[in-house]
Amino acid sequence: MDITHGNLNTVAKEHIATYCDNRLALIDDLHTLDQTNAVRVEFIMAALCIKGRASLYINGEAYTMNEYDLLICHPNIILEKSMVSADVQFRCICMSPEYINQLAVISNNTWDILKYLEQNPILTLKPEETDMFCQYYDLLRSKLTGTPLRHQKEVIDSLIQAFLYEFHDAMERFGKFATPTYSSSERLFKEFLHLLASLYPKPRMVAVYADKLHVTPKYLSAVCKDISGETASDIINQYVIKDVLYLLKKSEKSIKEIVNELDFPNLSFFGKYVKRYTGSSPKQYRKQLAEKETE
């Protein structure tokens, strides 16, 4: 199966965006969401279902969306085989990671929220939370499609900032999430996560990321441990193994092709890596998946 890369402008064009620039897109119509190829999302998307029903695969797992359900997609997830009912209605706000980072407010890189959303990408909102989302959407739509203002950028940035703060507050009923501060260590951790999410295939050496962030590997790992409770290597391997298991599960590529695509040095190293995280060799892992499908 081919995996295409879905950047903001490409997806916005395919789904007839109400508005789109290199920072932000608003999309009303997701009827064309049916996918024959998997898409690796390269932006942050908040898609609210206000009517109808949709089914989709996120990183190989099946999900269903109904009225009042909010889908949060962060960069590097894989969407595929989506179906929507004829009466479905969505309100969809898409933002580039660079734009979110520039706003310097609560963002997708808040570690505890990010971890929660990776495991729970679809949230069921209360009616008042749905109303809040639609109010921001409609106001953004009005400002972006109306007569440009002298301070257009500042107005839009302020609206998005307010939306992100209210979203963070709404998330509190799903779990206890610390409001981030912005020390130099937290900024570095945020930049590390952004860099990790943006690279494919993902280097497995901490030194590669440390070099790009202009710090030592030891310092980067210490910062990660202090903020998240996990070392930089632990976090890198979590992201790498997701790509590995997805390709083993959903791809028709041979194990050797996967080794080459993900830049592993050889089959032996790859086999040991997979066994460390799954308890099975790549071949055994695929065999177990095939047996489950025939049950």
Furnish the topology, listing elements before pairings.
Layout (H helix, E strand, L loop, with lengths): L2 E4 L1 H7 L4 E2 L3 E4 L10 E4 L2 E8 L2 E5 L2 E5 L3 E5 L4 E7 L4 E7 L1 H7 L7 H9 L2 E3 L2 H19 L6 H20 L12 H15 L7 H8 L3 H12 L3 H19 L4 H7 L5 H12 L3 H13 L1
Parallel strand pairs: 1-4
Antiparallel strand pairs: 2-3, 3-10, 4-9, 5-8, 5-10, 6-7, 6-9, 8-11
Which key phrases capture this entry?
single chain, 295 residues, alpha+beta, Jelly Rolls, Arc Repressor Mutant, subunit A, 6-stranded antiparallel beta sheet, 5-stranded mixed beta sheet, transcription, HTH_AraC, DNA-binding, HTH-like
Give your account of this protein's structure:
It holds the Pfam family HTH_18. One of its GO terms (molecular function) is DNA-binding transcription factor activity. By secondary structure, the chain is α+β, with helices and mostly antiparallel strands. The protein contains 12 helices and 11 strands. Strand 6 and strand 7 form a beta hairpin. Helix 6 packs across helix 8 and helix 7 crosses helix 8.
